[in-house]
Amino acid sequence: MFLDEAVVVFASGRGGSGAVSFHREKHVPRGGPNGADGGRGGDLILVADRNRRTLYDLKLQQHLEAGDGGHGIGNKRGKDAKNVEVKVPVGTVVANSETDEIIVDMATNGMKYVLCKGGKGGFGNSHYTSSVRQAPNFAQKGAPPERLVAKLELKLLADVGLIGLPNAGKSTLISRISAAKPKIADYAFTTIIPNLGVVRYQDETFVVADMPGLIQGASEGIGLGHQFLKHVERNRVLVHVVDCFPADSSDPVANFELIEDELRLYSEQVWKRPRIIALNKVDVIPSADFDALRQRFEALERPMIPISGYTGQGLPDLLREIYETLEATKPEAEIPMLLPALRPGHDLSFEVEETEEGYEVTGRRIERLVAMTDLENDEAVRYLHRRLERIGVIDKLRDRGAQEGDNVVIGEVSFAFTDEQ
Q1: Is residue 388 within a helix (H) or strand (E), and if so which, with residue range?
Q2: pTM of the predicted model, to two decimals?
Q3: What count of other Cβ atoms lies within 10 Å of the Cβ of residue 224?
Q4: What is the pLDDT of residues 159-188, one digit of tens each?
Q5: What is the reported pLDDT for 19?
Q6: Which of 114, 137, 188, 269 could be disulfide-bonded to 167 (CB atoms 3.0-4.6 Å)?
């Protein structure tokens, strides 16, 4: 089943908490802290795979998460969780479902992207020793997981896209020039999903996509126009298949201009792509009518090839024209490189806003610091206060007018503001 959209909840793993432990060994007096760190939570990584053709699997499994890291026990470090790799088709665009902000375009086979970074393991109490704190009785909790409700949208990657009105003969054409076996019938909207076919020409191959028929208003979403047109965005060359002898006696030139107008309204960039006109069904039109029609299309000053998808007439000329156009628009060859998985950068900024209840501090770094603090341990809370002061959060709260006892919200936790450590 072809499916080109899915909404999925992704989540990484939580980091394991550090341990509070003290070295105890016979005949060794005053053993110091030796609490081990927690393990790292698993990353959730997207992998572009050219062998995947649809998002159907993700539609069935709409919640994917990595495992949590193990907690530190005594002086034994917690176990790191395994990363989870999720394979998606090449050409999948991932966006935040709430803001529609595009996060990543999985446009290259083998590309990896860390969508949700696993939480780091918390430090054990051995990390908090100092000249004035020789026996810390607290450890750090594991970092919380990252969670994202993502909208995945597949935009097919093909060298050539066949466009045109319904029943123009696009499916018949792709079945003649490739091994694709689309549904073919004598009624409109036979093709309701894009079909891909690999065409061999001389010693080269290229991929052709048969797009479902477009209608007037497609650029505004009429007739599922946006769902069809988005696949055209990834085609380097467009072949506009025109029925030169329509069954409804409509004007072929007017039909051609209708689809061209819809392309222009949808995207000026798409409309400017190289275009070849395939004047189809020349085997059924009277020769006198065709001569007059041919002159009208030649006046459009675009490459035009008369063909018959049914009999095969003109197909060698069409393939040669497609091949030469592709060669003329071939992008520069990419140098293959082995790259680590991409991941978003760390945001170290924070903001302080005054609210009706008091003040709210927002910032990924600050919220994670609070979430990793054992707030039931007074020593850990005092350490958190000193960290916030060094980072500048306390000073910024003072500048905004915070007074002793005012309510301060950081993440999911509320504090009473104080200048005392």
Answers
A1: helix 378-391
A2: 0.65
A3: 14
A4: 898 888 888 888 889 888 887 665 444 434
A5: 93
A6: 188
Q: What is the per-residue pLDDT for 225?
A: 41
CA atoms within 13 A of residue 410's CA, in its CB half-sphere:
26
pLDDT band at 15 (very low <50, low <70, confident <90, very high): very high
Place of tokens 């100092």: 130
Report which residue type is found at 308: S
Specify the range with the lowest mean pLDDT, choosing from 53-57, 74-78, 107-111, 151-155.
53-57
In the block, tokens 């909790």 appear at 141
Token digits of residue 175: 């079945």
Select from 223, 222, 213, 193 the least CA-distant residue to 56: 193
Cα 167 from Cα 217, distance rounded (Å): 17
Residue 347 confidence (pLDDT): 62
Q: How far apart are CA 94 and CA 92, in angstroms?
A: 6
CB-based contacts of 180, cutoff 8 Å, min separation 6 = 174, 195, 196, 197, 208, 210
Q: What's the pLDDT score for residue 7? A: 92
Beta carbons of 310 and 304 less than 8 angstroms apart: no
User: What does each C-alpha distance from 17 to 75, 210, 369, 378 come to in angstroms?
Assistant: 13, 54, 13, 17
CA pair distance 105, 298, nearest whole angstrom: 39
| Tokens read off for 252 | 């072929």
Distance CA 417, CA 11 (A): 33
Flag the least confident range among 83-92, 328-337, 397-406. 328-337
**Structural tokens at position 223:** 């007739």
Sorted by sequence, the CB contacts under 8 Å of residue 68 that are 6+ apart come out as: 13, 14, 15, 16, 41, 42, 81, 119, 142, 145
Taking the mean position of all CA atoms in its chain, how far away is CA 83? 18
In 13-93, which residue ranges form alpha helices assigned H by DSSP? 56-60
Phi and psi at residue 66, to the nearest 5°: -90, 165
Q: What kind and span of H or E run contains 369?
A: helix 364-371
> How far is 75 from 333, CA to CA, in rounded Å?
53
**Helix boundaries (H) for 272-377:** 287-298, 315-328, 364-371
86-95, 112-121, 260-269: segment of lowest average pLDDT = 260-269
